[in-house]
Design brief:
The protein is of the alpha/beta class and 347 residues long. The chain is 36% helix and 13% strand. The chain contains 12 helices and 10 strands. Helix 5 runs parallel beside helix 7. The chain starts with a helix and ends in a 5-residue tail after the last helix. The N terminus is likely disordered.
């Protein structure tokens, strides 16, 4: 009865928010980046040795991998030079080719806001300049790694903000570096800012629209890792990113899904995620996300609290985590647990 009353209160508040803030909410609403990258039409119109190129919108990552396996290096390099933005985002294409293609694609934009992504040594596995920009960066040797983790971030992250200098352990790239450093040389970690995230706190954060688009992209991305022979990944899903992971769970081959600082995963329990992955959850003692009601009503809210006993996730200690983004801070209980999960302990 108490939960029902809370649901009604939350619904009333949500209705008031929608009615009272419709102007600024619609103005701040983000348009999700979907589909293949710009340049796909020219790619489809091209051929190599008389063979059509795999359709970026329809070819599976496995089909892409088989296509490139049948090319000699000079032909593959020619495609990278001619179509860098498509080749760099083609899940299933060889890793080294994607790194090179994305460096060329970043440089081709001529935009200062992306320039740092082309710095020597960076391994950019995906890059799309549309909108605020999306990006995925690899830390470590993905081609030889025994363990792979993917950081799926929440709001206010894009191709220019995901690696903020001040966010040593709190931004997606900072989280990835921290986990990779603590896990060791046998691991590779990917900071996957590969979907359009919400900006600020508004209707986008309360709805699942952006998460639904992101889940499609995340599922394809993990299929691309599988197509190039990478180990099945662990997904570390922060804040709104855990909504993305919850919707993608049944469509990925992740061994583990870790939700931390989560507003909900759009499922009432682990069983409702329909995944064989182990599901974990963490929440720090002063994480403001605990003030977000765990309900879902009329498309607003993201459902049950993943740290609740009823949800059924494995709990991760987080008593010493500071705030909403401190889960990867060196020395914390949460990072120690994350390292163990990333390294496959108990599987």
């Amino acid at each position: 009865m108490r939960r029902f009353a809370r649901t009604l209160v939350t619904a009333a508040l949500a209705t008031a928010v929608v009615a009272g803030t419709a102007g600024w909410a619609s103005a701040g609403s983000q348009s999700a980046v979907t589909g293949p990258p710009p340049g796909s039409a020219a790619w489809r119109a091209d051929t190599v040795s008389g063979r059509p190129l795999p359709d970026p919108a329809r070819a599976t990552p496995s089909e892409v991998a088989r296509f490139f396996a049948g090319l000699d290096d000079s032909l593959a390099q020619g495609l990278v030079r001619s179509h860098p933005l498509v080749a760099g985002n083609l899940d299933g294409a060889p890793l080294a080719l994607r790194y090179k293609a994305n460096r060329l694609a970043v440089l081709a934009t001529g935009e200062p806001r992306f320039a740092s992504l082309a710095a020597p040594g960076r391994q950019i596995l995906a890059f799309d300049p549309r909108g605020r920009g999306t990006v995925a960066e690899v830390f470590g040797d993905l081609g030889r790694a025994a363990h792979v983790s993917v950081i799926v971030p929440g709001s206010d992250n894009d191709a220019t903000t995901y690696d903020r200098p001040r966010a040593s352990y709190t931004g997606p790239a900072g989280m990835a570096r921290s986990l990779r450093s603590a896990t060791g040389e046998a691991a590779a970690v990917i900071a996957w800012t590969g979907y359009t995230t919400p900006v600020g706190v508004g209707l986008d954060t309360a709805r699942g629209r952006l998460a639904e688009a992101g889940a499609v992209r995340l599922a394809r991305f993990t299929a691309g890792l599988d197509a190039v022979g990478a180990p099945d990944p662990v997904l570390f899903c922060h804040s709104y990113g855990s909504v993305v992971c919850g919707l993608a769970a049944r469509h990925t081959d992740a061994t583990d899904i870790v939700a931390f600082g989560s507003p909900g995963m759009r499922a009432g329990s682990v069983a409702r995620l329909h995944t064989d992955a182990r599901v974990w959850a963490a929440r720090g003692p002063d994480d403001w996300i605990s003030d977000v009601p765990n309900v879902e009503f009329a498309g607003l809210g993201h459902g049950a609290d993943p740290t609740s006993a009823a949800f059924g996730a494995r709990r991760i200690p987080a008593a010493d985590v500071a705030g909403h983004t401190g889960y990867f801070t060196p020395g914390t209980q949460s990072l120690k647990a994350f390292v163990s999960i990333a390294a496959g302990a108990g599987r």
